[in-house]
Structure formats: C-alpha cells, structure tokens
Amino acid sequence: MAPAAAVAFSIIAGAQYAGGALPLAVLIALVGCVCVAFTIGEFARYLPSAGGMYTYSARGLHPAVGFLVAWGYAFVEPLVAPVLYLIFGIVMAGTLASEFSCSICRADQWWIWSTVAALLVFVLGYLGIQISTRAGTLLGLFEIAVFGAVSLWLIAKADHNTFKVFTTSAATAEGFSGLRGVFAGSIYTILAFIGFEAAAPLAEEARDPRRTIRRAVIYSAVGIGAFYVLTTYAATVFFGPSKMPGFAGFNNGDPWTGLAKIVWGGAWVLVFLAILNSAVANSNAGANATTRTWYAMGRIRLIPPVFTLIHPLWRSPYIAVFGQLIVGLGVALPLGFLFQPLPAFILIATMATAVIVLIYITVNLAAIRFFLTEHRDQFNPVRHLVVPLIGIAFFVPAFLTAMGIRAFSFVVRLSGPARFTGLVVGIWLLLGVLYLLYLYVRQSERVANTGRIFVDEPHGAVEAPGATIARTT
After folding, report:
1. Is the confidence at residue 473, as pLDDT, over 70?
2. Confidence of residue 471 (pLDDT cuts 50, 70, 90)
3. Backbone CA torsion sign across 257, 156, 1, 365
C-alpha cells in the first residue's frame, strides 16, 4: 500500500484543494474505504476467487457488470506501478541532484531511476508470490516506523495543535473553499488507500481464504487509515493550516524530506530511504494484483490465455509479469516526458482513483443485492445494507469531482493534466462496453464466467499461480 509514498506524494497532492482541512479529507476516505473493505470481506467468505471484485460484481449484480468491473480493474491496477516508478524517479533524482555532484545526479534523469525501480519489481514478481509479499511486508514495516516517528516529532514541535483541521473551516485554498476543496482533496486521499483490496485477487493462493482475505482487507484499511490521519495531522499542524495549499511545492516538491531536515537534521536520510522503499514495495504490490487479475481474466478468455502460463519453478504467472513491466514503463516514461514527472503522476493518479472509486461503488451495490438474493438467509441489514450505502455516499463526491461531472455545487473542476481524466476514463469505459457487446454476440460464455469460483470446482481445474507452494508451506 506504500504508506510512506502515499503520505509523501499521494495525499499531499490534495493539499492544493483541501488546504488545512487535508486531515478531514483523509477521514472521508477512511470511512468510505473501511466500508468497502468490510463489504469485500463479506464477499470473500462466499466467493474466494482470483477475480476479486469483478467476481463479486458478476454474482451480486450481473455478469455484464462483472465484465465491466474487470475491464476497469484491468485499467487501474497496471497504473499503480508506473505511478510509483515516477515517484521513485522524482525522489531519487531530485535528492541526488541537491545533495551530490556526479554524472547521474541531475533532476532531469528521473527516467533512469524509474527504469531501475521497474526492473527491481519485475525480478520480485518473477520469483513468485512468497518472496515478493514477504519483501513487501518487511519494507512496509520499515517505512511505517520511520514516518510514524517523524510524525510524533512534528506534533511535539508544532506551535499549535488543533482539531480545526478536521473541519471545513480550515479548507481555505483559493477557489476551493469549504466542502468543494475537501472533496477535491479526497480524490488523492482515496488514492492513498488503494491497495487494501489487493488481497482479494490472491484468494486462490492463500490458506483459508474465506477468513484470511476478510481480515487482510479490513485490518489493512483500518490500520493504514489511522496511520494516514496521524501523519497528515502532524504535517498540517507543523507546517501551518493556512499554508497547506502550497505544501506540495515545499522543498522542491519533496516536502516530507524537508520537514525531516528541520526536525531531525542529518537523520532526514531515513525519510528519504523510507519513500524510496515505499515506492518499490507498492509497485510490487500493485504488480502482484495486476498479474493475478490478468491471470484470472485469461483463464476465462476475456484476454489471451497466454496470461495464465505459470513458471514451472517459481509458480509465478511470468507472461503477465513481463506484460506488467512493459505497461509500467510504457505509461510512466512517455507521460513523464510529455508532462514532466510530477504532473504525470497526478494525471495517472486521478485516472486510477476515478475508476477504482466507481468499482468500489459497484461492489457496494453488488453486496446489497447478493445478500438479498443468493444468500438471503445470511442478510443482515447493518452489514449488508447500511454499511454499503455509507460507503457509496462517501465515494460519490470524489468520483464526480475526478470525472469533472458538476452535478452538485460542491463539485469543482480540477486543474492541470488532471482535467483530462473524464475524457480518458470515458473512452476506456466506452471501449469496454463495445467489447462487451462483441462478446455477447460471439462468445457470451466468457462474460458468464466472470462469476465462476474455481476453488470450489473439482481438482483439475486451472491451477492458481503459486498455489502449490503457498498451500504447503
């Protein structure tokens, strides 16, 4: 989930809109994401599948909806890695340029370091799920410890600790005051949470998936949410709520390293390392979720079956891993050169958030119908109606803002390259609808298979990546 990179880049991208109320934007994202995490957990008890959320939507609403969720997820997950490759390149090149003098220590050579990050993630993915997930866990613990410590330090050093930052009165960015700024900022705080649901596509590689997947998504959303509230509050009260609209530009676009230099002196290097570590860890997690989703889609032939090929030794879907490397660099490098790396990061991040929020809304709707129909005897009005509706309510404003749909007064248009989000996402969804119509005419069983649960089938069905190793160790 890249907590350090999310704190240092994803969340602060929302500061230009939410201003001093950025912690409130984090709380909005927290409530919405915990609700959908709970919903995913409820689904995982009955539908353990590498298809994850597209299987939930297919069974809860309709196979056509499941297909479109798969189409959207196939768009979002491959974007996670390139977003983090850009962050790695920005931080590494910028820090080397400011602190050292050498031939590869220039800020405009970010692309070298982005490529290095992509190759490292490729190696981790190729070597299989156990090595890559264990590496991600260890890296994640390090970055949480560093950012947790520096946040407590900032709170202790702050001139004024105040709960005003959890109210709309602190949202004072020019042109984005009040709820408009908070909801615009919530796009990027939701972005920081993306990843808690990535455990769902690993259901066929986990022991007791009906229990472990549920715990993984809920605990990660709650735990990381508390961490984000702590870190965002610390940065806001130390830097100053009134100055937060300009926070992202502090210290040449690397504000958290700048804060660490102020309060920790030479120990700022720990924050620098935590951000780099975070970018690699989250790229790795996003790549794992992408390759498993592609594997699941290839298994039911929504995409070429070659994506189901499993490495005989490492048990990784190695063709999908190669594909992720190509897509990751194919997105990060061209957009980075076209818009510059930071604006390119914001554009990719906004597109990913718009689609994933729509998927979260769909999954919440699917849960309501699933437990009212297929599992009516298990229906609970709080767990299967109230919780999904709360999640939907908290996500709708962020989706409308990201897409530029000004349906309410609190919806504003985003600036910079992010303003193209609605156009790009709209084109992708239209292509998905056209492909769906083609499949219905030519091979409708492919769409119907989005709701198929392979682990419930007799032995001999297509084997999940990593299944042999993961279930015997």
Report:
1. no
2. very low
3. negative
How far is 348 from 326, CA to CA, in rounded Å?
16
pLDDT band at 194 (very low <50, low <70, confident <90, very high): confident
Cβ–Cβ under 8 Å, residues 366 and 57: yes
CA dist 246 and 13 (Å) reads 10
Check which CATH number belongs to the domain holding 425 and give it: 1.20.1740.10
For tokens 């001139």, the residue is: 159
**pTM listed for this prediction:** 0.82
Question: 189 — alpha (psi -120 to 50), left (phi > 0) or beta?
Answer: alpha
Quick one: which of 457, 206, 435, 102 has its CA closest to 301?
A: 435
Question: Closest by alpha carbon to 39, among 290, 365, 322?
Answer: 365
Q: Which residues contact 135 (CB under 8 A, 6 or more apart)?
A: 124, 281, 284
Asked if residue 209 lies in contact with residue 44, where contact means CB atoms within 8 angstroms, the answer is: yes
What integer is the mean pLDDT of 359-372? 95
Is residue 117 within 8 A of residue 84, CB to CB? The reply is yes
Looking at residue 417, what is its pLDDT? 87
* Among 297, 426, 282, CA closest to 354: 426
CA nearest neighbour of 139 among 340, 3, 290: 3
What is the 3 state secondary structure string of 179-213? HHHHHHHHHHHHHHHCCHHHHHHHHHHCCCHHHHH
Instruction: Assign 218 to helix, strand or coil.
Output: helix
Task: Determine the Cα–Cα distance for residues 265 and 259; give it in Å rounded to an integer.
Answer: 9
> What is the band of 130 on the pLDDT scale with cuts at 50, 70, 90?
low
Give the domain extent around 115. Answer: 3-470
Collapsing DSSP states into helix, strand and coil, what is residue 379?
coil
> Taking a C-beta distance cutoff of 8 angstroms, is the pair 151, 23 a contact?
no
The total of structural domains in the chain comes to 1
- The C-alpha atoms of residue 33 and residue 40 are separated, in whole angstroms, by 10
How many residues belong to the chain? 473
Average confidence (pLDDT) over 218-246 = 94
Query: Token pair for residue 29?
Result: 């994202």
- In angstroms, the CA 227 to CA 464 distance is 33
Helix (H, G, I), strand (E, B) or coil at 13: helix
pLDDT at site 381: 95
Give the per-residue pLDDT at 472: 26
Residues 6+ apart with CB under 8 A from 35: 364, 387, 388, 390, 391, 394
